[in-house]
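Contributing new records

If you add data, match the layout below exactly. Sequence lines come first and carry their own label; structure lines follow with theirs. Keep one chain per record. Anything else will be rejected by the validation script.
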Amino acid sequence: MSKMGNREGPHRARKRFGQNFLVDGNVIDQIAAAVHPRPGEHLVEIGPGKGALTARLADNAESLSVIELDRDLVPWLKVQFERHPGFQLFQADALKFDFSSLLRAEQPLRIVGNLPYNISTPLIFHLLTFTGQVTDMHFMLQKEVVQRMAAQSGDKAYGRLGIMVQYYCRVEALFEVPPQAFEPAPKIDSAVVRLTPYAEPPLKANNIQTLERLVNVAFQQRRKTLRNALKQLVDPERLDQLPVDSSLRPEALSLADYVALANALDELPEQG
């Protein structure tokens, strides 16, 4: 799902782009109220579709950049919004887009989007690389993805996505959106989430690549104990030097545990 739009216009939703147009005015108003654009801010919308939310944002945002993959929607969006002086449109794939290229005069970005379900997780990981240049992010996602982002250790939904998002951002699940708010209606429930990047992460990994690799390896084999899951990172006999009970499963460790473990891995002496 990637589009917010109204019922007007000739465009039909395309499966290959994961398009389901948001048509419920009350939901659109709720999202706009959650974002609450203020003077002097630079908003970025991913997947504007036919512009229903875009219209709410453009009326209140001083600068609004939109990123749309579907070439057929570009002329429609230009006709609707080019009269706004701060509006700019990029026909581009958000997965490959350099969001730092939108920065002007060190003004941080506020990112909004109804993200395509088929690429939502890789897109979130891509956006996390720009958190130092972002004030906040508001996304409509599959409800299950929002649950994964907000999950804590021990939760069924807990895993790599939640740990890495929570390392960089405060996560707030705002409200749920039923299938009938879209056209065509998807077979799943949606939810809106707010991600607010920390100015300084409350937990500090000495090497973010080590943390990313650790979490990735651990949850590739989430049903195994850490002793088995971490074999490709550290020899089993050296696990005892790390601050972890290696008989636990990966979902038992908190974000703080993973950061401490990643830092300890970096400090292990080289094997002779």
